[in-house]
Design brief:
single chain; MnmC-like_methylTransf; Rossmann fold; alpha/beta; eight-stranded mixed β-sheet; SAM-dependent_MTases_sf; 6 helices; binds S-adenosylmethionine
């Protein structure tokens, strides 16, 4: 299915960063209260990816790459292995515009991994796009993550970033969250912007130690969930 979104669907958010409105889900990809702020606060800050020496990031829902760009800012040139799933990649011109247009002013847009990605985008349908720059690797798999095989016990960091549990419920089910928890390495940390009770309970049932943390603007709380080191 061809993606129907275009640059006309871009919209500014409260911190000045841009996001995109999805017609299909009736929601924006990033927070209207600040897309970049949310990425930094919840996903980067919540997981502590910035202080991991060799981060292995699993992202559920690559979207418009906001979380990737915010991660590239803090990881800079340190070793990074980033694996993202996205079944409906947006057009290349949308990604370019969103990350600051030709001037590349958006945070992370000048990073070599993002620059290479913009040249190679989109990932092939049913396949994987791989970018490698020195000790950094990015893979974006154009697959429905519900039926995709997830790496087991691999991720030091998980960004659980589907659309809301109401709009995109399949990414928040007990069954799927159990699979996502299985992708975490012992001691690995998952972060998600949702603090819904059923999401928290599903993460607890999946064997993770879950805590609520103060949220970014527009959100009272978000969830941080850690896999105990003694759990496979
Ligand atoms: C909130 S957006 C993600 C925003 C993104 N993390 C970012 O930083 O820009 C949710 C994304 O999940 C994707 N998605 C939803 N269900 C999916 C599924 N079953 N498999 C793969 N991707 C899915 C949507 O297409 C959308 O791009």
């Amino acid at each position: 299915m061809a993606h129907e979104l275009g640059t006309a669907d871009l919209q500014p958010t409260a911190d000045g960063s841009l996001t995109l409105r999805s017609h299909r889900f009736g929601q924006t990809y990033g927070s209207a209260h600040g897309a970049e702020t949310q990425a930094r606060h919840v996903f980067v800050g919540g997981t502590g990816v910035a202080v991991q020496r060799r981060a292995r990031v699993l992202e559920i829902g690559f979207g418009v790459g906001q979380n990737l760009r915010s991660t590239l800012v803090v990881c800079d040139r340190r070793p990074l292995d980033y694996l993202a799933y996205e079944y409906d990649p947006v057009p290349a011109e949308v990604l370019v515009q969103l990350s600051g247009g030709a001037s590349g002013n958006g945070a992370g847009a000048n990073h070599p991994v993002w620059q290479e990605l913009m040249l190679a985008w989109p990932p092939p349908v049913g396949g994987e796009l791989t970018i490698g720059v020195q000790e950094q690797r990015l893979r974006v798999r154009c697959l429905d993550v519900l039926s995709a095989e997830l790496p087991q016990g691999w991720a030091t960091t998980v960004y659980l970033d589907g659309f809301s549990p109401e709009a995109n419920p399949e990414l928040w089910s007990d069954e799927f969250l159990l699979r996502v928890a299985g992708a975490l390495a012992p001691g690995g940390v998952l972060a998600t912007y949702s603090a819904a009770g059923r999401v928290r309970r599903a993460l607890v049932a999946a064997g993770l130690d879950v805590e609520k943390r103060p949220g970014p603007p527009g959100k009272r709380e978000f969830l941080r969930a850690e896999k105990p080191v003694d759990r496979p």
